[in-house]
TrEMBL record:
Official protein name in the record: Enoyl-CoA hydratase
Any Pfam family hit: ECH_1
GO molecular function: catalytic activity
Protein origin, superkingdom: Bacteria
Species of origin: Enhydrobacter aerosaccus
Family stated for the protein in its record: Belongs to the enoyl-CoA hydratase/isomerase family.
């Protein structure tokens, strides 16, 4: 079973996250396979636009906590953080060659790491009632990257609230805050994404790609600046992070956080 399914419908490629038994949680392997699928789309001569969505009950529950957040201290030191070697999600859309646009079409839940992936896509069409959450806040990790991406999209004051509280927010709230482009009725989010894709591909491909390339360059620069500023904190070594990760894995509420 492919972790990411690749299907082309004329000029539109449908990329499907296919780990439904784990709510499409991003393991190192899934990040790697999505990177391969995005590269395949980027160099597919017949493809002009892609739609990214998730199989099953949710777009994605975020990072695979059991693999990426319960690593040993030695592993964190060797890898420079929770991500595996060569599987940093921030690289997925910024290593393109042809700069074709990608539409995210989330439904169900979009948590943690997957919030970043959705926000990094060029256009977003969410199913009504989709719930987003920056889980890094409650897990003892910084939410600076997510604040930056939401701010980049024009999220205004809502951006700070979402980043500091780590609360769930809906597709409808995200649309009101200018974080996403469209909200689709239940069960119609892929159809709505296809309609938006059809509007995009009416235009000359090179002019579309020029705009995509420039937007992603600015987005990537902002993300790299944030990561450069926050990397020395190494919050994944904190006691609070370790307690939050263990509590999640053990399906219990975390104990009192200590600020260390």
């Amino acid at each position: 079973m492919a972790l990411v399914e690749y299907e082309r419908e004329g000029q539109v490629v449908i990329l499907t996250l296919n780990r439904p038994e784990k709510l499409n949680a991003f393991s190192d392997e899934l990040v790697g396979m999505l990177g391969e699928a995005l590269h395949r789309f980027d160099i597919d001569d017949e493809a002009e636009i892609a739609i990214l969505h998730g199989n099953g009950r949710a777009f994605s529950s975020g990072a695979d906590v059991h693999q990426r957040q319960l690593r040993s201290r030695d592993e964190f030191l060797k890898l420079g953080g929770p991500q595996g070697r060569g599987t940093h999600s921030a690289d997925l859309l910024t290593k393109a060659v042809n700069w074709k646009p990608v539409i995210a079409a989330p439904h169900g839940y979009v948590l943690g790491l997957s919030v970043g992936i959705v926000l990094e896509c060029d256009l977003i069409v969410a199913e009504e009632g989709t719930r987003f959450q920056i889980t890094e806040t409650s897990r003892g990790l910084g939410a600076g990257k997510y604040w930056g991406l939401m701010h980049f999209r024009g999220g205004g004051a809502f951006t700070m609230e979402a980043a500091l509280t780590g609360r769930f927010f809906t597709a409808e709230e995200a649309l009101k805050a200018n974080l996403i482009n469209r909200v689709a009725p239940k069960g119609k989010y892929l159809d709505a994404a296809r309609e938006l894709a059809a509007e995009v591909i009416k235009n000359p491909p090179l002019s579309v790609r020029s705009t995509v390339r420039l937007r992603r360059w600015y987005m990537d620069r902002l993300s790299r600046e944030i990561m450069h500023q926050t990397a020395p904190e190494r919050l994944y070594f904190s006691e609070d992070f370790q307690e939050a990760a263990r509590a999640f894995a053990e399906k219990r509420k975390p104990g009192k956080f200590k600020g260390r």
